[in-house]
Amino acid sequence: MARVALITGTSSGIGLDTAVHLAQAGFHTVATLRDPARARALQERARAAGVSLDIQPLDVASDASVSACVRGVLERHGRIDVLVNNAGAGFLGTLEQTSLEALRSVMEVNFFGVWRMTQAVFPVMREAKSGRIITVTSVGGLVGQPFNDAYCAAKFACEGFLESLAPVARTLGIHLSNIEPGPVNTEFVTHVKAKISGQPSPGDAHYQPLLERYMAGSAAVYQHAQTGEDIARIIVEAATVPEPHFRYATSDLVRQVAGRKYTDLTGDALVNMMGARLK
Ligand SMILES: NC(=O)c1ccc[n+]([C@@H]2O[C@H](COP(=O)([O-])OP(=O)(O)OC[C@H]3O[C@@H](n4cnc5c(N)ncnc54)[C@H](OP(=O)(O)O)[C@@H]3O)[C@@H](O)[C@H]2O)c1
What we know:
The chain is of the alpha/beta class. The chain has one domain: NAD(P)-binding Rossmann-like Domain (Rossmann fold, 3-Layer(aba) Sandwich). The chain contains 10 helices and 9 strands. The protein has helices at 13-24, 40-49, 63-77, 100-128, 149-170, 188-196, 204-222, 228-240, 252-263, 268-276, and strands spanning 4-7, 28-33, 54-57, 82-85, 131-136, 174-180, 184-185, 226-227, 247-249. It has a 7-stranded parallel sheet, sandwiched between helices. The protein has a two-stranded parallel ribbon with strand order 7-8. Helix 1 links the parallel strand 1 (4-7) and strand 2 (28-33). NADP nicotinamide-adenine-dinucleotide phosphate binds at residues 8-15, 33-35, 38, 58-61, 86-89, 109, 113, 136, 138, 181, 183-184, 186-188, 191.
């Protein structure tokens, strides 16, 4: 019986590429997206690759949507071997530019969405005494970055949650892996930029020039970004090797930046390095 993979957020980017790569690797792949009307790019890529996908609606921010989706997968396929928590969204703004409402919505998709999906699928894997839960966090789940206060808080929360769960899951034959990309060329930045306009704060006279310098530096970093396919190949590796790692830093850049955190436990080197991006 073919193994079944369930993946979130496949309308674009890493999720779209990963859905196709998982199907090419032989998984019955349930590719989910919030709005089925946005499935055309996914369908075209699957057709070009000669694979078929089970495309289903899923909003990771909704309890009802998550439970209906998981129930449907079990009815149609009878098992879930791999869950890929990929859905996520960025947000740019420092503390004073981020309302509690905005913070809640960032946490809802990036953290509660991961918790909700993992909690819905975990009992299925516990009963099967096997399974893999692969979560796309970020270098921003390891290292804080200016103007990413809410996004990094959500990705750090995922890292803390999953690092705590991993040893217990292992006793049940369930492997957890976190995928930690740096910059990846997807729709991500366009989606983030669409959200920063129109959020005035009293401190903007100070923050705006810093944000502009940060954004200019980010644009330079994105010149050397990985592709969605690079990340998809790493996710397929985590889904298929006999003993997957807990962490997959996806590039030398991520290893270098995250390495600073662990080689200087005062945190000063990292704050100085990030601070240099505001000058
Ligand atoms: N690109 C990067 O530089 C980068 C770096 C590190 C980590 N990441 C992480 O990689 C993951 C994938 O991002 P990407 O780069 O591929 O960006 P992307 O092209 O913007 O894709 C994000 C996906 O998440 C979906 N999504 C958002 N909210 C959702 C919700 N409530 N329920 C279900 N799906 C939802 C989006 O669907 P809609 O079409 O419905 O909005 C979209 O399919 C994210 O977790 C992101 O944080 C990205």
